[in-house]
Amino acid sequence: MKTHKWLVPTLYIVFLMLPIYWLLNMSFKTTNEILGTFSLWPLDFTLDNYRKIFTDPTWYNGYLNSIAYVVMNTVISVSVALPAAYAFSRYRFLGDKHLFFWLLTNRMAPPAVFALPFFQLYSAIGLFDTHIAVALAHCLFNIPLAVWILEGFMSAVPKELDETAYLDGYSFWRFFRKIFIPTIAAGIGVAAFFCFMYSWVELLLAKTLTSVAAKPIAATMTRTASTAGYELGLLAAAGTLTLVPGAFVIYFVRNYIAKGFALGRV
Amino acid sequence: MAKISFHKVMHSYMARPAGLEDYALKEINAVWQDGGAYALLGPSGCGKTTLLNIISGLLVPTQGRVLFNDTDVTEVPTTERHIAQVFQFPVVYDTMSVFDNLAFPLRNRGVPEVRVKQRVEEIAGMLDLDASLQRRASGLTMDGKQKISLGRGLVRDDVNVIMFDEPLTVIDPHLKWRLRSKLKELHQRLGLTMIYVTHDQTEALTFADQVVVMYEGTVVQVGTPVELFERPHHTFVGHFIGSPGMNVLPCEIVDGTVRFAGHAITTASAEKPGSDVREIEVGVRPEFVHFDEHGFPAEVVKVDDLGRYRIVEARVDGHRLKLIVEEGADIPSENPCISFDPAATWIYADGWVVN
Amino acid sequence: MNKTTNQKAWWFVFPVVVLVAFNALIPLMTVVNYSVQETFGDNVFFWEGVKWFEQVLNSDRFHASFLRQLAFTGMILVIEVPLGIGVALSMPRKGPWVSVCLVLMALPLLIPWNVVGAMWNIFALPDTGLLGRGINALGIDYNFTQQPVSAWLTTVLMDVWHWTSLVVLLAYAGLCSIPDAYYQAAKIDGAGAWSVFWRIQLPKMKRVLTIAILLRFMDSFMIYTEPFVLTGGGPGNTTTFLSIDLVKIALGQFDLGPAAAMSLIYFLVVLLVCWVFYTLMMRHEEK
Hints:
Helix content of chain A: over 70%
CATH topology of the domain at 61-243 in chain C: MetI-like fold
Structural class of chain A: mainly alpha
CATH architecture of the domain at 61-243 in chain C: Orthogonal Bundle
CATH superfamily of the domain at 61-243 in chain C: MetI-like
Mean pLDDT of chain C: 84
Oligomer: heterotrimer
CATH superfamily of the largest domain in chain A: MetI-like
Strand order of the largest sheet of chain C: 2-3
CATH architecture of the largest domain in chain A: Orthogonal Bundle
Distance between the termini of chain A: 33 Å
Strand content of chain C: under 5%
CATH class of the domain at 61-243 in chain C: Mainly Alpha
Shape of chain C: globular
Radius of gyration of chain C: 23 Å
Largest sheet of chain A: none
Number of strands of chain C: 3
Largest sheet of chain C: 2 strands, antiparallel
């Protein structure tokens, strides 16, 4: 039994990799090959699909748009969540528990519920079809998440650290920047990772709030799938490219993920 | 219950140990008597936990044999060794009541429920746990949880040896001595072989009949607390046990007499160290250094008053040493001279005592 | 940790409150507003009271998509939670393979949801997809764009593919936090593998598993993009879950009143289930 233990994760990973492999496989095929034959690997290997994405602005702008609002959202979410999480972990104040719970309920709000009101709200204030609109809209679920994760990490830091720093004559902000933030760097990493992830994968709100100028790559793909008929190769190549930022981010935070999960704060 | 013997036991965590320095445990030969209370004492990384895991069967030693009574158990799995262990952090099964926790080892072994009830109640009585038998184990205090860990070992009547791995680490200081005297009491009452691992000399000296001092993977001395104090076999034992530790000073042997800083001194070592020895030292505990006008001159550097006695730090020809002066005795203010008690002064050759 | 009372802490949470309130309260008010009014366009509204709520709660369409949603969420929980625990249990605890496993397993979590849908579409197409072609080659008639059973199977399989890793990562983190002493003590106490799982591993994983189940419940209950891209809610309405139905009503038919009423009911259901589940788990904890 013990010697075959590796079999379960191996089979599971194979299962995970199969659709990804198929996507890769398709992305290197020509449309003719996809429609005409069935093969486990590209017989007529081509980079045309990728070439098209890198040369056509409607395609590569999609990537730039997505990255723009994801980065904006991550920065906004983490920077406003830091002081709030500090307040929740260190102080008791009027309505603190209710506030914390209310924040978390927003993580449970189905985006579909908010799609239409968001469209109207952001149109009314003239932010429709901008990066910042999507970045702000994603704050709805990312700020509560960031506050939750950071609060967990901060509560694990003993309060004596703060008190010692004040005794040593640090002002609050100097202490916060010079001592506290470096202490919870891992927590900030985990929070930023999850903000990045949820903003990157969400599509419904991003699509609703944009039309041309800030259209995310994911929405560009949806359009291709429906209007251009079966350009499967192109779709597969675009999909493959969306895996890259995610894979990159996971690789860098792989040691922190388990830690973040261990705190039970996701 | 059993006698435990080690024959040339060595262990390395490396797959292919190259030399002696790769071994976490360097050749242990010992026989521990049935019903004894042994303490394994040493600093972190000295190999005491490795030795413990070899006894419990969690580790199979790289070389050598381990015997319980006269049966070779070197490769016998933990479950069949009939041992019990209390860990540094209390291990309790959170979802079960205290009663079920104590009954767990018996039920796993298919003991009939009538007998289980009887045993659990008996042990709970000994450990003062009767009142909380029906409570959930997760709600107990640290010392209560540690008692449950101990109780799970005691309920079984087939236990050869109970091992304790620094069991008082997480217990509040004012409860430590109570739990420690409880252990002592249980040892006397049940006559079980007990092995107690610690880096705290007070715990070791008060708990054990025999203290096993370990250092860098070797057993440097086995002895009663008194033996360890009066006649340390190794300079490490001298340093590690006693507060403050033994004075270990360089010396030379000229024409058969021992000379420290140019002064001839008498020691208890009858033999003379061999000629291949690299370093010769003389060791004497602060308790056995006295102010003595017939001794050799020293300079008083510092005096710490600890109430019942004072610790004096003195300097002789650039060598620092400590002596203990009882309450009421004088510290000479002019030209102080000191001497060593010859019966408690030993010569150490490369760290090991010369008899 | 004992906290000090400090009302000035409100200044620290102020930016968060403003941002979240802007995003949550204003749209929520809009939804509430729509849910009690009728409009024929031109921003003219009539008070309707609870008519839309009654209409939604009595409509067969809502019942159908709600039941589909329940069935879907139930199915994926029943598959993903045990599977996730099983994979986590058999993963190595240390060594170079841990990183490899974690990185590969986390990969599906970082794929944009519509790409997940598109990827499975490509993977499951009966003529060009590996899965579709494979199943048909086994002699089973499979076409997820035509047959409800195939569509369901594909959607559930896709969700299992997409999200089981979350359960694995959480359960794995829970397992890693169990000190070795517990396993050694269990060995000494003569406990078998089943006892170890039941008495040590599962209780120690309880906290992370609570979170895993909550997250999987919430997210699967809100699922929209993946099945929308994969099946478009079809064939027919067989994979039209709550969110898909809601978007159809709100943005497709522009029936704002019923859509708003349905939104509120939907949100309340999610909140209620989360709250009840969480309270039950935590009360058990305190005892």
